[in-house]
């Protein structure tokens, strides 16, 4: 049976989910797929390109249409959708952050956030900066959340430091920060109207 690109991606995501990013190696992936490591390079020239493709796969839910009443709802929907996608895979936020930092992801997630800024009325450069700002917020919040969940699962947190006992919960903290971001965009738009 011929190894397909989709098989390699599915195998990489399975290893990511079970063992984490540190254990996602080309050798482990080849072994799990029952092939020699060289067979993987037919589809991905190096590990970095594989990680970029995995990031794209993690972010695939961002490609779905957004049914939003207004620009604020669009930002909220896209941001929540991205957080959910990152948290749905072990070390998902860390992997996607690394893919963005190294410019390896081809996902349109950032562009979708920039379009939401343009829809709000931000000029092109401002919409791009707003997209970067919310993207970094989502990645940072999700990385912290995933790290704390993993530390808690290994017993590394005391009960009073456990995410299970934090108040408010992680989703509420995320929503609060997202509300601050949207309020900031609204304030920027009001400033533009008074110029």
From TrEMBL:
Pfam families: TetR_C_1 (PF02909), TetR_N (PF00440). Residues 25-44 bind DNA. Keywords: DNA-binding, Repressor, Transcription, Transcription regulation. Residues 2-62 form the HTH tetR-type domain. The keyword Oxidoreductase does not apply. One of its GO terms (biological process) is negative regulation of DNA-templated transcription. The keyword Repressor applies. Signal peptide: none annotated. GO terms for molecular function: DNA-binding transcription factor activity; transcription cis-regulatory region binding. This is TetR/AcrR family transcriptional regulator C-terminal domain-containing protein. It comes from Speluncibacter jeojiensis.
């Amino acid at each position: 049976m011929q190894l397909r690109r989709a098989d390699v991606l599915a195998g990489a995501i399975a290893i990511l989910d079970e063992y984490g990013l540190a254990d996602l190696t080309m050798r482990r992936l080849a072994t799990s797929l029952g092939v020699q490591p060289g067979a993987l390079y037919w589809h991905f020239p190096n590990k970095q390109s594989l990680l970029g493709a995995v990031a794209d796969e993690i972010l695939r839910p961002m490609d779905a249409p957004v049914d939003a009443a207004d620009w604020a709802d669009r930002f909220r929907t896209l941001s929540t959708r991205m957080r959910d996608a990152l948290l749905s895979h072990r070390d998902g936020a860390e992997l996607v952050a690394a893919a963005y930092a190294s410019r390896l992801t081809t996902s349109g997630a950032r562009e979708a956030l920039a379009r939401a800024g343009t829809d709000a009325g931000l000029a092109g450069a401002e919409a791009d900066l707003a997209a970067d700002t919310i993207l970094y917020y989502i990645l940072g919040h999700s990385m912290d959340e995933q790290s704390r969940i993993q530390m808690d699962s290994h017993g590394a947190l005391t009960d009073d430091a456990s995410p299970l006992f934090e108040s408010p919960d992680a989703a509420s903290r995320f929503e609060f920060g997202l509300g601050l971001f949207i309020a900031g965009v609204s304030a920027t738009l009001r400033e533009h109207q008074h110029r």
